[in-house]
Amino acid sequence: MKAVPLKIKAPHGAMVMNVEWSDGHLGVYPHDVLRGLCPCAMCQGHSRPIKFRSGGNLELREINPVGNYALALTWGDGHASGIYNFDYLRTLCRCETCKAAAPDAGS
Q: SS3 for 50?
């Protein structure tokens, strides 16, 4: 069974979202990483791989589940078309363990 988020914390004014996963991992997701690697077609076009795009409002206003497979994030400027499936979200983790495992992972 794949890991799923159990608890998500993104306090108002903070610039990081924390996720407690069902496999015990505690994920750390800076807002600039989440917004910069937004997977939506508006940010990325229709090509792959996903590229970091700087800019945009980094205030995370809403986090909504999408079925049992993803989260939809709404940013302070109203941008809300990015759907982060759980597998993709895990790749964006910037905790110390994940950074050590993938030192070339960017931001």
A: coil
Question: For every one of its 107 residues, what pLDDT tens digit does the chain have, with 9 covering 90 and above?
Answer: 699 999 999 998 999 999 999 999 999 999 999 999 999 999 998 888 999 999 899 999 999 999 999 999 999 999 999 999 999 999 999 999 998 887 554 44
* Long-range pairs of 6-10 with CB within 8 A, sequence gap ≥ 24: 8/63, 8/71, 10/60, 10/63
CB 44 within 8 A of CB 50: yes
Query: Whole-angstrom Cα distance, residue 4 to residue 54?
Result: 28
In the chain, what are the domains? Answer: 5-101 (3.30.2020.30)
Query: What is the per-residue burial (b if ≥16 Cβ within 10 Å, else e) of 20-56?
Result: ebeeeeebbbbbbbbbbbbbbeebbeeeeebeeeeeb
Number of H helices, E strands in the chain: 4, 6
**Strand, helix or coil at 44?**
helix
